[in-house]
Design goal:
8-stranded mixed sheet; alpha/beta; Rossmann fold; 13 helices; 24% strand; binds ligand PMT; globular
Length: 402
């Protein structure tokens, strides 16, 4: 019996040419033993008929707030409580925008807003729409709120243009759901502490020493472990990004604040992951007023070393705790990464290199190699940081249970 057996899946369909794929998605889900309730937007019905979908799902398709004229009310709240997961496939730019901003003008959006279960969003649109800043911002917002974005793929689009925007294939969407239900709670009962983002070390009230970390890698890790049942605390330096609401967020500015927040929580953490790009130095003195440049040809700053958070906590690590660091290297860096793992008393380390295009700071993607003290090495291709977080969680899961 597969993991989708008996699962209640709400399939939301919006108005895209990719709606035809919703038919095979429904068929595959039903074949895997799931009960599928389809909710379709008015525009969705222009692309695929409710009769096809209700035949495949063996349930009436819901589109309107009321069924016919008999006053029967379709309760989006009940559907939200019934579901084990909601999949919105295809999700058009309009639907994604409405989801992000709560524009509840159709049954799909009201159902989404009432949803208690995890939501998977499979965008489908033309390449210009997919690349538009408003679409990207809306998807970012949905991801921050804990929705799972199933990235669209590159290929020929309905416009005959070639680019990113094709809805992911139904088989892949089904396997993502299967993975979700398989692993869903493998970190239940574990407490996880994660550091992420940069730290800012004040020079004066307007200037600081910092770096390019966006916090995205650590946030992806926090969301991944929380999704898999862990109680996650994320100590995050200055970042415009946020984790999902399942994560306890502790916002800090400086390395010293980051260390203090970690020290408060490390005692009960089964797992700690140090993904932050901590500033190694801070100005010895921070000016209380803005430093003026008039009459000064040069400015000398005296820098003092910041605490090494991973090394400080690593030195006091208990045998039942598992600590993982990151190593950001500007060259191949394998030996340096391993040295850092030893020096900071870590059980494992994630190497990412600035030499790899698309890896490291700020990119939505990363390319990592994982090492542990037992000599295991796992190298991965360039992937989204969410997918990297998934690989890292799998790597840790095997070792925590060993
Ligand atoms: O935030 P993003 O834009 O998504 O980018 C992700 C990232 C590139 C920041 C992340 O993937 C990463 O590599 N984080 C570690 C960056 C770093 O500072 O590496 P490092 O090699 O200098 O440090 C080694 C380890 O010691 C790291 O686990 C680091 O968190 C920790 N450290 C370093 C210095 C310090 N004072 N305290 C620490 O805890």
């Amino acid at each position: 019996m597969g993991v989708l057996q008996g699962k209640h899946i709400v399939l939301g369909i919006s108005g895209s040419i990719a709606a035809y794929k919703a038919a095979s998605l429904t068929r595959l889900l039903v074949k895997a033993g799931a009960e599928v309730q389809i909710v379709i937007t008015p525009a969705g019905k222009e692309f695929i008929t409710p009769i096809t979908l209700s035949a495949l799902s063996s349930r009436p398709v819901i589109s309107e707030f009321f069924s016919g004229r008999d006053g029967t009310w379709n309760s989006h709240v009940d559907i939200g409580l019934w579901a084990d997961a909601m999949v919105i496939a295809p999700a058009t730019a309009a639907t994604i925008g409405k989801m992000a901003h709560g524009v509840a003008d159709n049954m799909l959006i009201t159902t989404y807003l009432s949803m208690k279960a995890p939501v998977f969003v499979a965008p489908a649109m033309d390449l210009d729409m997919a690349a538009h800043p408003s679409t990207l911002d809306n998807l970012e917002l949905l991801a921050q709120r804990g929705n799972y974005i199933i990235e669209s793929q590159s290929g020929e689009l309905a416009s005959h243009l070639v680019g990113k925007g094709r809805m992911e294939e139904p088989e892949v969407i089904v396997s993502i759901l299967e993975d979700y239900f398989t692993e869903s709670l493998d970190f239940e009962g574990r407490r996880v502490l994660i550091t992420a983002g940069p730290t800012h070390e004040a020079i004066d009230p307007v200037r600081f020493i910092g770096n390019h970390s966006s916090g995205r890698m650590g946030i992806a890790l926090a969301d991944e472990f929380a999704r898999r049942g862990a109680e996650v605390s994320l100590v995050l330096g200055p970042s415009s990004l946020k984790p999902s609401e399942r994560v306890e967020l502790i916002s800090v500015t400086t390395a010293e604040e980051m260390l203090a927040a970690c020290q408060e929580r490390i005692g009960t953490a089964h797992l700690a992951i140090f993904a932050a790009a901590v500033a190694d130095y801070r100005p010895r003195y921070s000016s209380a007023t803005k430093i003026k440049r008039e009459g000064e040809d040069c400015l000398e700053l005296e820098l003092v070393q910041n605490p090494d958070i991973a090394a400080t906590l690593g030195a006091a690590k208990e045998p039942w705790q598992y600590f993982m660091g990151f190593a950001l290297e500007s060259d191949a860096g394998v030996e340096e990464a391993k040295r850092k793992m030893q020096r900071k008393h870590l059980d494992a380390i994630v190497l990412n290199s600035l030499q790899d295009a698309g890896a490291g700071f700020a990119h939505p993607t990363n390319k990592v190699t994982l090492f542990d003290r037992e000599g295991a090495i796992e190298a991965y291709e360039l992937k989204t940081k969410e997918a990297v977080a998934h690989d890292i969680a799998d790597f840790v899961a095997k070792r925590l249970d060993a």
